[in-house]
Amino acid sequence: MNKQHMTLSLSVGVLGGISVFLAGNVLAPLGYSLWVGFIGWAMFFKNGGDNDSLKMTCTAGIYGAVVAGLFFALSSAMPIGGALSGPIWIAITVFGLMMGTQVSCFACAPTAVTGYAACAGYVIHASAAPMVSSMALMQNPVVTVSLSLVIGAIFGMISGKVAAAAS
Length: 167
Known about the structure:
- By secondary structure, the protein is mainly α.
- It has one domain (3-166).
- The chain is 73% helix and 0% strand.
- The chain is built from 6 helices and no strands.
- It is globular, with a radius of gyration of 17 Å.
- It starts with a helix and ends with a helix.
């Protein structure tokens, strides 16, 4: 058995349990979404599991969530193409999303797409589409998803550092 893998598994498991507890208690008033947090955690490790990957996970993930928020805001405010309005706005916003990954702080396209998908999933499954334009920050899905991605990435960083210290 690989000791390094064992310590990382233990660290992620224990901190995963702690994150579930915090999601239902301390982080609940912030609107923390546990499943989005776990996505941020996974993207942190996918991006390299170091300080630079924390920055990339946060910036690219938030960027994706913001662009998804733009999709919902634009598609509801300016329906175009009749029944094709959704697909047209998806095409436009995803094109913009991918073009934006040329900017160095958004350069991880998989993380940007994951942020977009997490925000879209959150809105669709929470029936939160009308709240995308909400000025109440904790009711805005873009804010909720962005915050959850960042918290998840921080949990990822902590679990990696704990595992490294224990190895």
